[in-house]
Amino acid sequence: MNGVLLVLIVLVVAGLGALVYATMKASDRRNAAALEDAKAEARRLIERLGGQVFSLTATDEAAKQALADASERYTAAGSQIEQATTVKQAMLAKESALEGLYYVRAARVAMGMDPGPELETLAGQRAAGAVTEERKVTFEGREIEASPTPSPRTPNYYPGGRVAGRPVPAGWYSEPWWKPALVAGAWGVGSVLLFDALFSGMHGTGYEQGFAQGFDQGFDQGLDQTGGDFGGLDGVGDVGGADFGGLGDFDFGGF
To answer: 3-state DSSP call for residue 50?
Structure first.
């Protein structure tokens, strides 16, 4: 009797082991299929972006700047997809390619061409809104302009989104003042003046009710998402840093 019981126990254990193994293999196959699908979608957009980057020739400064940014995203997306081993990494490559297509669209608009089909919404783009009126402010001794349309004074395009946890509206600007924030790690306190002057009360942006509203939106999004680029606008004195979890390192500088 004991021998029969032992055999039954062995059979049950072996059956459970086989079931667990089969479940794990099925999960691996699903994960592999999901990764391949995500890579295929990213590559589709990367190829589409490359076709536009290599076929368009800029005819003015605004288009030149936009195409340069599109080319930069094309290179980044290509590198990201080659190194992608997870669905999330493949999605990041897709996001880079999608950003590049927004820059291509902007270049076509600057040259008076048909912008092409509508694109998927970028992460944080909807909350950031878009520049809807001309604004000119003086910040740290230089004039910075924002406009809903390209011009010789505003040749730098941004497709809109969250930079360092803060919404930056889509629009055309006199300089790419947001770029240091993609590299350095945090917004300085002095940048509050720039955001407030450029966007506060502007209809269609994340700052219709003032800077605090836009900051709160960025903070809430930062709590909902982890990772991403969190950079700082330089040109202010550093007096230390603090880690705010999902929002990254904020660099508090003086005015």
So the answer is: helix
Calculate the dihedral angle through the C-alpha atoms of 193, 195, 198, 204, rounding to the nearest 10 degrees.
Answer: -150
- For the record, the structure tokens of 226 come out as 């982890």
Q: Yes or no: say if 49 and 88 are a contact pair by the CB < 8 Å rule.
A: no
The number of beta carbons lying within 10 Å of the beta carbon of residue 164 is: 27
Say if CB 165 and CB 248 are below 8 A apart. Answer: yes
Per-state percent for the chain, helix, strand, coil, to nearest 5: 55, 15, 30
Handedness of CA 53, 47, 92, 83 (dihedral sign): negative
User: If pLDDT is split at 50, 70 and 90, which confidence band does 189 have?
Assistant: low
Reported as a single tens digit per residue, the pLDDT across 100-138 is 999 999 999 999 999 999 999 998 899 899 999 999 999
State the DSSP H helix or E strand holding residue 216, giving kind and residue range, or none if neither. helix 211-224
